[in-house]
Amino acid sequence: MLLPMSIQAKSYGWGFKKNTNHQPPDVGVYKNILDDLGGYYLDNSGDKVVYLTFDNGYEEGYTGKVLDVLKEKKVPATFFVTGHYVEDQEQLVKRMVNEGHIVGNHSYHHPDFTKLSKAKMKEELESLEEAVAKITDQKEMQYVRPPRGTFNKQSIQWANELGYTHVFWSLAFVDWNTDSQKGWKKAYQQVMDQIHPGAVILLHTVSKDNAEALAYMIDDLRKQGYSFRSLDDLVMKDILPEPIIGF
Question: What is the CATH number of the domain that holds 182?
Answer without folding.
Answer: 3.20.20.370
